[in-house]
Amino acid sequence: MAVVPKFKVAGTREIDRRARLLVPTLVTIGSLMAVVSSLGAPLIPTLSHTDRVSLSTGEWILTITLLTGALVTPIMGRLADGPRQRDVILFALGCVVVGCMVAAVSENFAELLIGRGLQGVGLGILPVAMAIARRHLSPERARRTIATLSVTTAMGVGLGYPITGLIAQTWDFRAAYWFGAITVGCALVFAAVVLAPRSNVASRRLDIVGAAVLSLVVIGLSVVLSEGGSWGWTSATTLGLGVVTIVLLGVWIPYELRSGDPLVDLRQVKHRSVLTADVSGFFISIAMYMFLPTLVIFVQIPVARGYGLGASIVMSGLVLVPLSLGSFLASRFLIAYERRFGSRSMIPLGSLVFAASAVFFGLEHGALWEAFVASGLAGLAIGFTTGAMPGSSCELWPPPKRGALPVSTRSCEVSV
């Protein structure tokens, strides 16, 4: 009888252990990134008062994180579309740890913004995690994992807001960022142990020009939307920056279409399933990030002002717990709903439910329970729509090749 060498047995056990822990690791990392990204919104009123800045300026502690995430996501997706997926995730987690530490020791608003900007690098992890799931899991298990990863943003936000509020109210807002540094540091160690090292997949060229122009477009658009109200929507600064942004976008689109290896493959947009997911995701994301900070800030505003509910930071965070629960429950019902009613009605139904939650709170906002109801309805809507998007865009395009195990992030590059 042949004796199997010990190193082979150990190697097999190592692979099996990594396979069992892969999904929990990816979901944990995705949830923690959402928690870290939410370490700003509940603190906007407090930090604005502490650092003596206006409320609109204080909102940049949330905007800068989302801006950084928008900038790094396509670049990280391209760098991860090859053998270095693990390296990309470890680098991003390292940036988040450093960002949390910078924010925790910051002595002024500018230093806090630098820390929050570094934390935004973690938002680019989500598409990389989806690509890892598609490459290393069976099609059915990968689909369930990607659907769960899609709603980790909403689940993490719903968990991060009350955690942030509790820590900030008990100790100090800097303690919330120390909490982020410790938890993400643990996730970094976990990822280093569980995620597989480099695979035998060819690297792709990074479109540096496309990345640079896209970065300028995103920055210009974000600044216009964030500061246009204070500058004046018809002011020379707002209009000038808006025109420059549009011109750059007009240059970037044909450049990407002509490129043989573009940063974002815009040709996928001609496929109706991808276009539907992209457009829907864009508008739903805008609605989500307009609705959630508004909800949290409104419930904290003192009743003496004639509006607001006068809730504490902790209570304002607890308002978003139903958001997490609703998102998780909706993601669990996706497969059963699709089998019964099909996939075409998923995104429209979720969008209608979200609109209903916003209209409800717009009309009925005199009691705290109404904020909880609105949050829960929004969670159901977000879980339903974001959980359905990767299935509608990534699964149908491109058609899988027989025997091809590694699936490129190219098939999910736009939609995620």
Question: What is the strand and helix layout of this fold?
Answer:
Elements: H1 6-37, H2 44-50, H3 55-58, H4 60-79, H5 85-105, H6 109-119, H7 125-136, H8 139-150, H9 152-170, H10 173-194, H11 208-231, H12 236-258, H13 272-300, H14 313-318, H15 321-341, H16 346-363, H17 368-394
Helix pairs in contact: 1-7, 1-9, 1-10, 4-6, 4-11, 5-6, 5-7, 5-10, 7-8, 8-17, 9-10, 9-15, 11-12, 13-17, 15-17, 16-17
Describe the protein.
By secondary structure, the chain is mainly α. It has two domains: 17-206 and 263-412, Growth Hormone, Chain: A; 207-262. The chain is 74% helix and 0% strand. Helix 1 (6-37) runs antiparallel to helix 7 (125-136), helix 1 (6-37) runs antiparallel to helix 10 and helix 9 (152-170) packs antiparallel against helix 15. The longest helix is centred in the N-terminal third of the chain and has 32 residues, at 6-37. The chain is globular. The chain starts with 5 loop residues before the first helix and ends in a 22-residue tail after the last helix. 44% of the residues are buried. Residues 1-10 and 393-416 have low confidence and may be disordered.
How many domains? 2
| CATH topology-level fold name of the largest domain | Growth Hormone, Chain: A
Instruction: Determine the fraction of residues in helical runs and give it as a percent range.
Output: over 70%
Profile the largest sheet.
Answer: none
Q: Could you tell me the strand content as a percent range?
A: under 5%
The N- to C-terminal Cα distance equals 51 Å
Backbone CA Rg: 22 Å
Write down how many β-strands occur, each being a DSSP E stretch of 2 or more residues: 0
- Kindly report the average pLDDT value: 78
The CATH architecture name of the largest domain reads Up-down Bundle
